[in-house]
Amino acid sequence: MPINRVFGSPNLCNMEPEKEMDQNMEGDHKYELQDMKKNKKKLGGIKTMPFILANEICDRFAATGSHANMITYLTKELNMPLVKASNTLTNFAGTASFTPLIGALIADSFAGRFWTILVASVIYELGLVSLTVSALLPQLRPPPCPAQENCKEASATQLWIIYLSLILTSIGIGGIRPCVVTFAADQFDMSKSKVESRSWNFFNWYYFCMGMASLTALTVVVYIQDNVGWGVGLAIPTIVMAFSIIVFLSGSPLYKKVKPGGSPLVRLTQVIVAAMKKRKEVAPHATDCLYKNRELDAAISSNGRLLHSDQFK
């Protein structure tokens, strides 16, 4: 059943308040368009890209530098058996792969991409700080065991600190990764050909910088961790991540912050539920009698209202 007929009801044809509501919404929509035109030249655009790029470069550098060599830290510094260490990191990777779904849902539903990225970055930074503190303080690690024989494993408290650090970083990843690219795309007006070409240039630089950040972290940071010390090796990503938050926040006055229009998952669920409830109702032939909500349609449609169709019944 097409979406535009799911909520159909013949009783809507003769409802004058609905027409007045549509007229009021048209007026509100007109003023919103005027405000958008006024702020169009002030917000967004290529001038916001240095802040977004710097934030994502630092984030990728910190994420790669703190977790690429984590198996070595767990086995040699915490004296964790290899199987247990591998299982721990596998659980962390699975959690970090699932949390972006929740982060995207939160951003689309009510928080918005800017605040989701900012709050997630702070949570990520807290995880890196706790991880760095555990590497710097001897009492948060078991005694050194250079021979790697009959080593004393980490205590429950020491392990919980590591687990808490990994959980916080997983939550941070879930809020950052699904929103950064979309937030960058929000800064461009794709209706203009020049702006569209600039956006493609930005995304080319984006992926190039991500690769360079990961490469630098895999070489420099991992070398420091293995040859200088884990305290310094984990402090560097922590400092870089703190710098990324400052850079991202400093560009806040320039960003175009698109209001959340609702999650597609929620919309899909609503359509399925409505279709099941009204599966026996007969759809009206006149399109004017179909349910319309200008406010909701504007929030989820980027190219205007979809045309009515008799397909997908």
Automatic annotation (TrEMBL):
Q: Which GO terms describe its cellular component?
A: membrane
Q: Which family does it belong to?
A: Belongs to the major facilitator superfamily. Proton-dependent oligopeptide transporter (POT/PTR) (TC 2.A.17) family. Belongs to the major facilitator superfamily. Phosphate:H(+) symporter (TC 2.A.1.9) family.
Which organism was this protein described from?
Actinidia chinensis var. chinensis (Chinese soft-hair kiwi)
Protein known as:
Protein NRT1/ PTR FAMILY 3.1 like
Subcellular location(s) of the protein:
Membrane
Q: Which domain of life is it from?
A: Eukaryota
PANTHER family named among the record's database cross-references? OLIGOPEPTIDE TRANSPORTER-RELATED
Topology within the bilayer: Multi-pass membrane protein
**Transmembrane intervals:** 89-107, 114-140, 160-184, 205-224, 230-249
Name the Gene Ontology molecular function terms of this record: transmembrane transporter activity
Q: Which keywords describe this protein according to UniProt?
A: Membrane, Transmembrane, Transmembrane helix
| Cross-referenced Pfam families | PTR2
SUPFAM superfamilies associated with the record: MFS general substrate transporter
The UniProt entry, under InterPro entries, shows:
MFS_trans_sf, POT_fam
Q: Does Transmembrane show up as a keyword for this record? A: yes
